[in-house]
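REQUEST ID: PR-0412
SUBMITTED BY: lab tech R.K.
PRIORITY: routine
TASK: structure prediction, single protein chain
INPUT:
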Amino acid sequence: MSKQNTETKLGKSAYKKELRRLQIELVKLQRHIISYNHRILIIFEGRDASGKDGVIKRITQHLSPRETRVVALGKPTERENRSWYFQRYVSHLPV
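STATUS: complete
OUTPUT:
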């Protein structure tokens, strides 16, 4: 028996079209969040070369740089490894 691949791959033009649609929705979301004075925190964590940089670049590409902040943290210290997971990010959060 052969295993069927249920995933659908997008062609390059379909990928770009979908990416553009999603980026437009992100800009709309950012405008809504700004108008209601809300904030969103998104944390990407993973090993080196896991694709985080590419994802972050695509997400922030069309967002307002005045309203968007990206912080790249280094490898956790021994102390950070023993503390609560979220503690590493607290010092980088807005007041």
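NOTES: Residues 10 and 18 are 9 Å apart (CA to CA).
REVIEWED BY: pending
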